Amino acid sequence: MITAEVILAASEGANPLIPNWWEILVTGVAFAVLLYVVKKFIAPAFEKSYTDRVEAIEGGIEKAEEAQAEANALLEQYKAQLSEARTEANSIRETAREEGAQILADLKAKAAEESARITAQAQVQIESERVAAVNSLRIEVGTLATSLAGKIVGEALDDDARSNRVVERFLSDLENQQNAGVSN
């Protein structure tokens, strides 16, 4: 479509590719005013916004680095406490083992002492019972030997001295025969 201006300009002999000088002037003034407004008001607002964002980001990064450093320090502290707790637990466990071994050794020693005491007491009791049995047997054998000798001889051997001599001689002969039998 051809406009009226193009037709008017073609009739005047002006070149449509070259603008008019007043259009250039108006456009230049409008561009200068726009450039002034952008430079005076808009650019500083953008710059301030950009600076605030940069500071906020850098502050956030610094805070994150501080938080990371604090977290690492707490982690190291936790690891140290954990290691210390493990060492203490091992120490307590080892002490308990040693105490258990000591208690066991003490109980074994007490049991051995008690066993030795009971054995010694039993030996003493056995010896005293053996002596009592031997004495009882001597008296019984003596009585039997006296009554047997009295029946053989035909007279009563009620005399204590005589009966004791007979019993002693009989027992010594019996022991000699036993010792001779064991020797062979």
Question: What's a concise summary of this model?
Answer:
The protein is an all-alpha fold. Helices cover 90% and strands 0% of the residues.
- Strand residue content: under 5%
Mean pLDDT figure:
84
Radius of gyration: 66 Å
Largest sheet: none
Count of discrete alpha- or pi-helical segments spanning 4 or more residues: 3
| Residues in helix, % | over 70%
Shape: rod-shaped
Find the count of extended strands (DSSP E, 2+ residues).
0
Uncertain stretches: none
- Pairing-aware structural class of the strands and helices? mainly alpha
Distance between the termini: 162 Å
Number of domains in the coordinates? Answer: 1
SSE ordering: HHH
Describe the structure.
The chain is mainly alpha-helical. The protein has one domain. It is built from three helices and no strands. It has helices at residues 4-12, 21-153, 160-183. The longest helix is centred in the middle third of the chain and has 133 residues, at 21-153. The protein is rod-shaped, with a radius of gyration of 66 Å. 1% of the residues are buried.
